Amino acid sequence: MRQVRAVLAALLAGTVTLPLCTAVPARASGSSYIRARAGEPSSAPVPARVSGRPYGVAATSPSLPGPVRGGVADTPEDCPADALCGTLRVPLDQEDPAAGTTAVAYRLVYRRDRSRAAEGTILPNPGGPGMAVIGHRDYTGRYRDLLEDHDLLLVDPRGVGRSDPLTCRSAGWNGLRGTHAAAVAAARACGRELGPTLRHYTTAAAADDIDAVRAHLGIDRLDLLGQSYGTYLMTVYARRHPRHVRSIVLSGAYPLRFDMLGRPSAHAMRRALRLLCHRSGGACDGGEVLGDLSTMAARLDEHPARYGAGAVLDETALASTVYKLTSGHVDRLGRLPSALRAGVHGDLGPLEELAGQVRPISGSSGGGRFSMPMYVTIACNDYPVLWDRRAPVHARARQFGALLHHLEARDYRPFRPAAWVHGIADLGDLCVGWPDHRERARVRLGRAPDVPVLVLTGELDTGTPTEEALQAADQYRRAEVIEVPSAGHVAENDRRAGACVVSLETRFIRHRHIADPACLRHIPPVPVDSVNHPLT
Hints:
Blueprint: H1 2-13, E1 24-25, E2 32-34, E3 53-56, E4 83-91, E5 101-109, E6 120-125, H2 139-142, E7 150-155, H3 173-177, H4 180-194, H5 203-217, E8 222-227, H6 229-240, E9 245-251, H7 263-278, H8 286-302, E10 305-307, E11 311-313, H9 315-325, H10 330-333, H11 336-344, H12 349-358, H13 372-382, H14 393-405, H15 417-422, E12 453-458, H16 466-473, E13 479-484, H17 498-511
Parallel strand pairs: 2-13, 6-7, 6-8, 8-9, 9-12, 12-13
Antiparallel strand pairs: 1-2, 3-4, 4-5, 5-7, 10-11
Helix pairs in contact: 1-16, 5-6, 7-8, 8-9, 8-11, 9-12, 11-12
């Protein structure tokens, strides 16, 4: 435990200089932390800018105890020939039968070698919250090597995708993409529309649904694979159903209790910009980029700029833009230093273009299989709050405002604390108007299972920074942490790092320990546009 705290303290101070592929025990139980050396540039060249009724095939897999109850029915065209698809009716509230039921959809994709029992069953979740699993991502292609002898279980969480999706007519993604005030109003409107039913849509309920599907299919234990919010869901599942967990992989991880005021993200933002420039081959200087960022934050706070179809670039929008570039849009991050320098010299065009591409202030790309109602419902039901839930909205707002007023400015430099906090969708006071005024019931969480755990974190990620990844790992007795160099949020989605990360995940699930992580050395840095305007 003391060693984990030492690593966290070093991260905050910016003094971590561990050599690549050196394991540092996180505590006496044997957890470890692996990261690339921050003190030396990468050796890779810098690229140039340029219903309980299953349908589908019969469940006769040797890994199952026999055919699934209900037989085979209603075969849709989108159920693969090598899979078992279906829905399971589950209680909305396990302690209140009168609350009714909801449908949870699943797809069990069988391993290619059906001549023998499966080595395991992988259960992935890509995050959100509010992201569908079935059909969302090509898990069968990405983890093809594992599917030689592992089955793959896809479950859409309740309220999402094919699992009786929640809808909000009064609010949508456009509300979350507007100003901070519009995002708060959209969350409140959606909560009011959902009414009393919103209390049944929680991470704990989703975890219990997954376990109901597991039991229905006769699967003993699962290899959990969570990404982003999926790491939160998998940790809740592991602590509610520990006997049914074989191993856990968490990518883009954060702990169950995290800082709703975004201090770790602000620390990570400053570190990410320095690392970006350190590995840029001289295209930028981290200290100068942070200086330009400070200049633009102050300037846009005093004189916001309007661009596009009514969009505003102020200090909060700039903070949101930087946050998104250093998390989910690392491929565009290399354009930020030159855009800031252009802004300092009076040309806001490059900054406005970047802001337009990542859509500050709030929300996600949304659409498709991503549910805005479930995004706000999980955030507002489950995440920590900074006020008394039982208080009226105006009292909650005062309580939050008092906290914001007393924040340390140095923790958020070069932004004001309010600008940084308001620029991140699911932090701060997004849920201050959420209509459930009851004190949150204590969710039963047992001890985490004593199983192998791999935690992966992107070196440049501000969404779920390394500081929070280490805290997530500290929730387990046998966790190993890998920081992926020059990668952002959920590193397996990064085109430069993805192949390496997936290979490490695959070998960990198969062998339940970290295999040779040498591929980390070959991940190229983010290409950076040269800063052409000299300081004057």
